[in-house]
Specification:
By secondary structure, the protein is α/β, with parallel strands linked by helices. The protein contains eleven helices and eight strands. Bound molecules: zinc ion. Zinc ion binds next to loops.
Length: about 270
């Protein structure tokens, strides 16, 4: 299988420290044609951009993840002491870099005890930034559908709601307002009936694939460190739902990813 586009990866995380370059070098031979590497705060953003400079199939997303508001290791806390407005100002010059394709990873997270008003303000500021820059977003929504959908309705950002976990009805509405939805390892897990319904309800032009690596490895490699090549397993699961073959799923979602995050034609020539 080839033409794999991973629209949400974290190769900057420490789980890849031992073999990051070896692994990224091996990805194209494993069928990977594009990766969106997502930063989570100003501390890891320069490395995400550097990765995009080093590997022609990688593009970067730069932004502040809601969890960075409470993570002691995140620059949001360690350097900016919670002053995310100052941190966003400091991130701004990175968006001049042509390797930066999106604002991300941004969003809302009610699973972890992140103060709600702070994360709402931070997310809203970054939606405004994306609109101002004309960039798509890579959006995280964990257990915050109500607040999330209200802001998405208001700002109508372009981009991807990653690891989509909502209902089929909401999926139809969200894709109708121009968002794409990201699907990863979770669709292969037993009991992923909701994701199956979503994938059958939305237009295929609104679906993209992702890892969220190093996490969320699909069956049959669940529990192991994830990487973009494993998206082939996700494509196989979706192929059964779409009544087609896995390569067709990869080709459709590749076209969607390339359109949304402006991957260059150089990557497409790998097909
Ligand atoms: Zn992520």
């Amino acid at each position: 299988m080839n033409n794999i586009y991973d629209t949400h990866a974290h190769y900057g995380s420490h789980q890849f420290d031992a073999d990051r370059d070896e692994l990224l070098t091996a990805l194209p031979a494993g069928g990977v044609a594009g990766v969106l590497e997502c930063a989570t705060h100003s501390g890891d953003a320069p490395a995400a951009v550097a990765l995009a400079h080093r590997y022609p199939f990688v593009r970067a997303a730069v932004g502040i993840h809601p969890e960075s508001l409470i993570e002691e290791d995140a620059a949001t806390v360690a350097v900016y002491h919670g002053d995310w407005r100052a941190e966003l100002d400091a991130l701004r010059p990175l968006f001049d870099d042509p390797a930066v394709a999106a604002v991300g990873e941004i969003g809302l997270d009610k699973h972890w005890p992140v103060p709600l008003q702070a994360q709402l303000d931070l997310f809203e500021a970054q939606l405004q930034l994306a609109a101002e820059l004309g960039l798509p977003c890579s959006i995280h929504d964990r257990e915050a559908h109500g607040e999330m959908y209200e802001l998405l309705r208001h700002y109508k950002p372009k981009g991807v709601l990653h690891c989509y976990s909502g209902s089929a009805e909401d999926a139809v509405r969200l894709t109708g307002q121009g968002l794409a939805l990201g699907f990863g390892g979770a669709v292969t897990y037993k009991g992923a009936k909701r994701a199956a319904k979503v994938l059958q309800a939305i237009p295929r032009e609104a679906a993209v694939l992702e890892t969220d690596c190093p996490y969320m490895s699909p069956t049959p490699v669940r529990g192991q460190r994830n990487d973009s090549r494993n998206i082939a397993f996700v494509a196989e699961t979706i192929a059964a739902l779409w009544d087609t073959d896995a390569q067709t799923v990869l080709d459709i979602t590749a076209a969607n990813a390339r359109r949304i995050y402006c991957f260059s034609d150089v990557n497409a020539s790998k097909k």
